[in-house]
Specification:
By secondary structure, the chain is α/β, with parallel strands linked by helices. It has 9 helices and 12 strands. The protein has a single domain, classed as 3-Layer(aba) Sandwich (Rossmann fold), CATH 3.40.50. Helix 1 packs across helix 6, helix 2 packs parallel to helix 3 and helix 5 crosses helix 7. Belongs to the dTDP-4-dehydrorhamnose reductase family. Catalyzes the reduction of dTDP-6-deoxy-L-lyxo-4-hexulose to yield dTDP-L-rhamnose. One of its GO terms (molecular function) is dTDP-4-dehydrorhamnose reductase activity.
Length: about 300
């Protein structure tokens, strides 16, 4: 199966490239700048069609949540128009598209995990452009699987786990918000979930359950408890650790509003594809160990 992935440096892309190596039936190609650029529509169609995909994974995105407030046009060009163009090119190539989206499409309220049928209501530019991207992806290709995820970390790129370990190397304590809740999600697990989807599409040509699914780590926590888990794992490996001071979101102002509730219900994905991510604690431990071993 020939899988074409948009982007080359992102956490999910790099995780997919790694995990695809244990799937001999998969050939994975990545598309990146300058030959492929979501902000330049003229580069999208030819790059995807010439790659002759059996499946397109739309992973590249504008993810600078605060900066998006100052660059709404660029964020829309990449997250909405660009994503729609990727989906359309996949359709022209006769391929389904798997598009990655985010918990930010919701208002971030309530105390229970969001289901795929819950009303959306993004409060910031990033979430608004990602929601617009979902709409354009669905309109451009009937064979679409939109996978919403949250709180992504991995051994690659910039993420919360790496930031916490870096801070602990130079200070005794860190202040972390305690009133934002979500599912910490390993990009390695996202990659495995996507490859599970790919295998289903490869082996079941009659598959028609396209639409929106939630794909996130199993279990939920808040940011400060997530930080404590990271330091617990690091300390067990003789790595850096720090005390964690709980603070409220109001004490840590950001340009873009952060959702207090990012929890996603993943039962629909589990029921359809028979796959569920490991517990967030288990995947965090694996990532911390790997980061410490490579440092």
């Amino acid at each position: 199966m020939r899988i074409v992935v948009t982007g080359q440096e992102g956490q999910v892309v790099r995780s997919l490239a790694e995990r695809a190596r244990v799937h001999p039936e998969v050939t994975l190609l990545t598309l990146g700048r300058p030959d492929f650029d979501l902000a330049r529509p003229d580069t999208i169609g030819d790059a995807i069609r010439s790659a002759k995909p059996d499946l397109v994974v739309s992973a590249a995105a504008y993810t600078a949540v605060d900066q998006a407030e100052d660059e709404p046009e660029l964020a829309y060009a990449i997250n909405a128009a660009g994503a729609g163009a990727v989906s359309a090119a996949a359709a022209q190539a006769g391929a389904p598209v798997v598009h990655l989206s985010t918990d930010y499409v919701f208002a971030g309220e309530g105390e229970t995990p969001y289901t795929e049928d819950d009303p959306t209501g993004p409060s910031g530019v990033y979430g608004q452009t990602k929601l617009a991207g979902e709409t354009l992806v669905a309109q451009a290709n009937g064979k679409h699987l939109i996978l919403r995820t949250a709180w992504v970390y991995s051994p690659f790129g910039k993420n919360f786990v790496k930031t916490m370990l870096h801070l602990a190397a130079s200070r005794d304590s860190v202040s972390v918000v305690s009133d934002q809740w979500g599912n910490p999600t390993s990009a390695i697990d996202i990659a495995d979930g996507i490859l599970c989807v790919a295998d289903r599409l490869r082996t079941d040509p009659q598959f028609d359950a396209f639409g929106i699914y939630h794909l996130a780590g199993t279990g939920s926590t808040n940011w400060s408890s997530f930080a404590r888990a990271i330091f617990h794992d690091s300390r067990g490996e003789d790595g850096p650790f720090a005390d964690v001071k709980d603070i409220l979101t109001a004490e840590y102002p950001t340009k873009a509003r952060r959702p207090l509730n990012s929890r996603l219900n993943t039962e629909k994905f589990h029921g359809m594809f028979g796959w569920k991510a490991p517990s967030w604690e288990q995947s965090t431990t694996s990532t911390v160990k790997r980061l410490l071993q490579s440092s």
